[in-house]
Amino acid sequence: MTDSQRFLSLDVFRGLTVAAMILVNNPGSWSYVYTPLEHATWHGCTPTDLVFPFFLFAVGNAMSFSMKKYAGQGHAAALKKIGQRTLLIFGIGLLLNWFPFFRWNGENQLVLKPLSQLRIMGVLPRIALCYGFAALIIHFAGERRSFVIVGCLLLAYWWLLPAFGQSDPYSLEGYAGLRLDKWLLGEQHLYKGEGVPFDPEGILSTLPAICNVIFGYLAGSYIQQKGKDYPMLCGLLIAGCVLVFAALCWNLVFPINKKIWTSSYVLYTTGLALLVLSILMYAIEFRGWRKAASFFEVFGKNPLFIYVMSGVLVKLYLLLRTAPQQNLYGWLYTHVFRPIGGNYPGSLLFALFHVGLFWLLGWWMDRKKIYIRV
């Protein structure tokens, strides 16, 4: 199997997750979102809850190709490259959290967003940390021991939550990671989407999330070692089914939960990622259905850049106002998309429009051979 063939399936899988990120992050109105496009309230898993772990899996899959370059280099050179990339992605995440640097106060005046209230964690900071730690583990431990480390991390997290949690350790109030985040980061630097200071991309839950990246790396390495044949594909399918079954069994005592990123959630999402990747590989590499996959391939060639740009645009929508109490985001939904389809369809149409908008950006960049690697 040639590099272009291998990377095509990877690009499509990664692009699928980026398109899904844009779709679920940009409804016209959060009051009118179809259930599959919402996160689970707490325990459980919706299609939306698969998007982020799938992206981490894709990060690991890409690492199985890119980290070959470190093999002939010393530890110092590898550490430098891994550290630089980790810090760069984390820094971009912090800037995106702070962007657009100004906000409206209660007197309809633009004021500087205080750094004292800057959210430190988030999607990009988690990607950075998961990439960095996974790369270090793989570089120094190798593949076999990395697999053992994954098992240890997942079991350790299972032990940590009851050991340091309160009453119900799998609830928001009893979750040990909440106390850790408050202590290390401070309440002012946490996400408040749950109505209370709580970060679903917090410090403690980053530990099991690292495993999604390592699993992605091991899957990519397995594909390269076995080559393009049906036994390889069957191996991916069987591994996916085994992990999903194990996750559902573990769910009985350690609930599948994205917001605290439980170990059963890691196995469940990794298993489903393997199944989806198997289907894509069969369709693209074995059957040659490439035209049908070209839409998502565009997203996969500049994934982080397109994701960041989608966040930048939405934040600009929220900053720009068409009236004293209405921002551009709300105006577009109310005056453009809701009149076309009504509440729920209009909200979905708003999200689909932005998926298409950023596809055009990715398509233009691809035509111009512009590929921004972070």
UniProtKB/TrEMBL annotation:
Domain Heparan-alpha-glucosaminide N-acetyltransferase catalytic, first and last residues per copy: 6-162
InterPro entries in alphabetical order: HGSNAT_cat (IPR012429)
Pfam families in the record: HGSNAT_cat
Highest taxon of the lineage: Bacteria
TM spans (from-to): 12-30, 50-67, 87-106, 118-140, 147-165, 202-220, 232-253, 265-284, 304-324, 344-364
Keywords for this protein: Acyltransferase, Membrane, Transferase, Transmembrane, Transmembrane helix
Entry keyword annotation includes Oxidoreductase: no
Gene Ontology molecular function terms on file: acyltransferase activity
Coiled-coil regions, chain positions: none
PANTHER family assigned to the protein according to its UniProt record, in alphabetical order: LD22376P
Protein's recorded name: Putative acyltransferase
Provenance organism: Chitinophaga japonensis
